[in-house]
Amino acid sequence: MSVAKDLETPENVIFPPGDLYSQEPPLESDLHRQQMMLLIQSIDWLWQNRNDFYASGNLTVYYSSRQPKSEDFKGPDFFVVLGSYRAARKSWVVWQEDGKYPNVIVELLSDLTAATDKNLKKQIYQDIFRTPDYFWFDPNNLEFAGFILEGGEYQPLQPNPLGWLWSKQLGLYLGVHEEKLRFFTSEGQLVTTPEEQVQSERQQKELAQQKVERLAAKLRELNIDPDSI
């Protein structure tokens, strides 16, 4: 029996309350946790002036009345829902969110989860969620792959010369940079986090100050007072 048929919800089912807590276990390692937060922080920072999306991670996506009783499925490590709104949630409850499913999902592979991420979850995201863009990434060995939903089935995305994969839903590339999965704009610019942006601005100020100091030193060598200019 297909995953889609086995997990479909009859029309006469009464859904449980929408105020459901996430049931996700802790991520496998610090690397996994840091990677998840990196994706969330960078997309939130890039789209800080938007309020038409929701990005989260390691959060249960409830889509079936039978699901809370099943241990077969856990929520995505990172996902983005477009056409929604930014607000704190205990979980993502599809029937309380206008029937919206994630537009983009990233699973972080580990020895314990890789088989599930590549098979059961991939099948659920394809057949039930109909999530257009699905990626997986292993923070340990840097395995990276992506898929786009075409004709109801996932087709592998082809990398550009840098090895990046395009997310049509986000309008961004995903690629490995300094052993982390990162977002890049269509122009190839790295999507930073707030902390990275502050650090970059600080470095630019320091470089500008050093340039001024070098110029002042050169003027003094020429017996010119830089303060008089």
Automatic annotation (TrEMBL):
InterPro entries: Nuclease_put_TT1808, Restrct_endonuc-II-like, Uma2. Residues 13-173 form the Putative restriction endonuclease domain. Keywords: Coiled coil, Endonuclease, Hydrolase, Nuclease. It comes from the Bacteria. It holds the Pfam family Uma2. The keyword Cytoplasm does not apply. Signal peptide: none annotated. One of its GO terms (molecular function) is endonuclease activity. Residues 198-225 form a coiled coil. This is Uma2 family endonuclease.
